């Protein structure tokens, strides 16, 4: 966080159709309002790319663009397939599945430990959400685990947050050493 209180925020959107659906419309409005609050916002998106307001940066993430207008559910040319992930995406679409983004790699070990702002610690809505998550504890204290395919986070009872694309045990280890 900079001294002025602004944040650098990355918004990730798998597909961002700008005029219908959810992601493209939502990412445009959310990014615009975050910039209006003084934050530095960058959107990472696959095709179709979103239409964004001034002050929001877009990093284009290439894909097969299987749902583009005017030819949704198209069959890509052989030369468009870059790797096996593209082949899997196409085959999933052909079997009426919805191909989701893939996250892969090795050696991911970074854990960020920070504090929740005081304003986020006391409101009733946050408490209800946190209480719906499984409880975890260790030498660092007690908290709640938010676990997804991409990222895990531990929110402690004393307002600390540990987050990373690591297993929950790594988050607990980071909390114990800080």
Sheet/helix structural class:
alpha/beta
Helix fraction by DSSP (H/I, runs of at least 4): 25-40%
Q: What proportion of the residues form beta strands (DSSP E)?
A: 15-25%
Compressed to H and E, one letter per element, the order equals EHEEHEHHEEEEH
- Adjacency order of strands in the biggest sheet: 4-8-7-6-5
Largest sheet: 5 strands, antiparallel
Number of helices: 5
Radius of gyration from the CA trace?
Answer: 20 Å
Which word captures the global form? globular
Number of strands: 8
Regions with little confidence, pLDDT below 50 for 5+ residues: none
Give a description of the structure.
There is one protein chain. The mean pLDDT is 83. The radius of gyration is 20 Å and the shape is globular. Strand 5 and strand 6 form a beta hairpin. The longest helix is centred in the first third of the chain and has 14 residues, at 23-36. 17% of the residues are buried. It has five helices and eight strands. The protein has helices at 23-36, 84-94, 118-121, 124-131, 168-176, and strands spanning 8-15, 40-46, 57-60, 112-115, 135-138, 141-147, 152-156, 160-164. Strands 4-8-7-6-5 form a five-stranded antiparallel beta sheet, covered by helices on one side. It has a three-stranded parallel beta sheet with strand order 1-2-3, covered by helices on one side. The protein has 178 residues and is α/β, with parallel strands linked by helices.
Short description:
This protein has 178 residues and is an alpha/beta fold.
Question: Mind sketching the topology for me?
Answer:
Layout: E1 8-15, H1 23-36, E2 40-46, E3 57-60, H2 84-94, E4 112-115, H3 118-121, H4 124-131, E5 135-138, E6 141-147, E7 152-156, E8 160-164, H5 168-176
Parallel strand pairs: 1-2, 2-3
Antiparallel strand pairs: 4-8, 5-6, 6-7, 7-8
């Amino acid at each position: 966080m900079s001294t002025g209180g602004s944040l650098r925020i990355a918004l990730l959107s798998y597909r961002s159709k700008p005029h219908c659906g959810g992601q493209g419309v939502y990412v445009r409005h959310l990014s615009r309002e975050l910039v209006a609050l003084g934050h530095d916002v960058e959107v990472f998106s696959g095709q179709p790319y979103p239409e964004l307001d001034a002050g929001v940066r877009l990093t284009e993430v290439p894909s097969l663009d299987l749902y583009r207008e005017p030819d949704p559910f198209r069959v890509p040319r052989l030369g468009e397939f870059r790797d096996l992930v593209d082949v899997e995406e196409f085959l999933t679409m052909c079997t009426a599945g919805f191909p989701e983004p893939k996250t892969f790699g090795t050696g991911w070990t970074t854990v960020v430990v920070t504090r929740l702002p005081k304003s986020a610690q006391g409101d009733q809505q946050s408490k209800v959400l946190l209480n719906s998550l499984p409880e975890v504890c260790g030498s660092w204290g007690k908290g709640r685990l938010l676990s997804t395919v991409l990222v895990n986070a531990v929110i402690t009872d004393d307002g600390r947050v540990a987050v990373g694309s690591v297993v929950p045990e790594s988050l607990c280890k980071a909390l114990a050493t800080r």
